[in-house]
Structures are given as structure tokens and as C-alpha cells.
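Practice problem 4.
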């Protein structure tokens, strides 16, 4: 009885099959997209107009985050959890406090003649501020504006801001615009 020869397998087509599988998986695999804050940056200012009137101190709500991730709001220490209510109080100024923002009388569709605050939120952080703290503060500022918009929507239309028609949303945004000014990070200190 003789030795049987082992038959050779033609491996030339294996490379083609592997290549086709590679292409198939590359085409069908979905990639995770990076998510982040949906913040629209303002266009760059070419030249500062010389006749810009200064913003009154009472119309600016200053939020500082230091290198130790501590908040200083209007010159006083504050916990992040208290920031939403403080921002709402500043924007609405229900008692017309002379230390809170002035108001403009304006005609707004669906709402008639209303008083709208001139308040601006100024956010500044230290170069060493943790990104997580910065995001938490941003979240609280946005939450305050969103809650005010929801409250106005429910009072006027009986539903949340997100459920309104575009024209109704535009009117609510006129009442409570998102005026958040972010300064370039610097060394604020401890």
C-alpha cells in the first residue's frame, strides 16, 4: 500500500474572500459619533464699534468657576445645585429689584405688551477648571432658561415649549432669549 498524497488547497481565492468580507464589514458597521454641547458660536467680530454703550452692572449676572471647581456667582460662593433658581430670579426680576436687570416694554405676538429683562449671563472659567464642572454649570444655565420657557408656554398655550408651533416658540424665545456670554478662560485663582 502506497502513501497517499495530501492534496493542495488553492489559497488564491482566500485573499479575495477576506477582502470582500473586510469591505462588507466596513460598509455595514456604524460608527459612534461624538456628542457635545449644541452651542452655536457667534461669528468673529471684525472691528469693535466705537459707539457701543457699556452694559450696566445690574444687567450682568456674573458666574465664575475657579481652578478648584467652585462657583462664585455675583461675587458670592454658590453651590451648582442652586444656580438654576438664582438665574431664573435674575432673568425674571419679579419684584423689580434695582439690583437685578432693567426691563424693556415690547410688543410680542400672542403675549401682547410685556416687559422683557435686559439681563445677560456672563460665564467665565479658569484654565484649570474640570470639564465636568464646566458642563454642569452650562447645564444649569440652560435648564433655567428652558424652565422659564416651559412655564411661559404652559401659562399661555397649555403645553410645553417643545410641543409648540414654530411661531409660538419664537414668541416664547423673545420673552426669554438665551443671552449667555462666555469669556475666554483665564487664571481666576482659588
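Answer key:
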Amino acid at each position: 500500500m502506497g502513501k497517499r498524497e495530501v492534496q493542495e488547497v488553492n489559497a488564491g481565492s482566500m485573499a479575495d474572500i477576506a477582502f470582500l468580507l473586510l469591505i462588507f464589514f466596513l460598509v455595514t458597521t456604524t460608527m459612534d459619533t461624538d456628542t457635545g454641547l449644541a452651542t452655536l458660536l457667534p461669528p468673529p467680530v471684525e472691528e469693535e464699534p466705537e459707539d457701543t454703550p457699556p452694559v450696566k452692572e445690574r444687567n450682568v449676572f456674573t458666574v465664575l468657576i475657579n481652578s478648584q471647581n467652585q462657583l462664585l456667582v455675583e461675587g458670592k460662593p454658590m453651590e451648582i445645585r442652586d444656580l438654576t433658581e438664582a438665574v431664573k430670579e435674575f432673568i425674571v426680576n419679579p419684584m423689580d429689584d434695582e439690583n437685578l436687570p432693567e426691563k424693556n416694554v415690547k410688543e410680542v405676538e400672542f403675549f401682547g405688551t410685556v416687559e422683557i429683562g435686559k439681563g445677560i449671563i456672563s460665564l467665565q472659567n479658569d484654565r484649570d477648571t474640570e470639564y465636568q464642572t464646566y458642563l454642569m454649570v452650562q447645564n444649569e444655565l440652560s435648564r433655567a432658561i428652558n424652565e422659564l420657557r416651559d412655564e411661559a408656554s404652559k401659562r399661555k398655550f397649555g403645553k410645553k415649549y417643545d410641543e409648540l408651533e414654530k411661531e409660538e416658540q419664537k414668541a416664547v424665545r423673545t420673552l426669554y432669549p438665551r443671552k449667555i456670554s462666555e469669556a475666554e478662560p483665564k487664571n481666576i485663582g482659588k
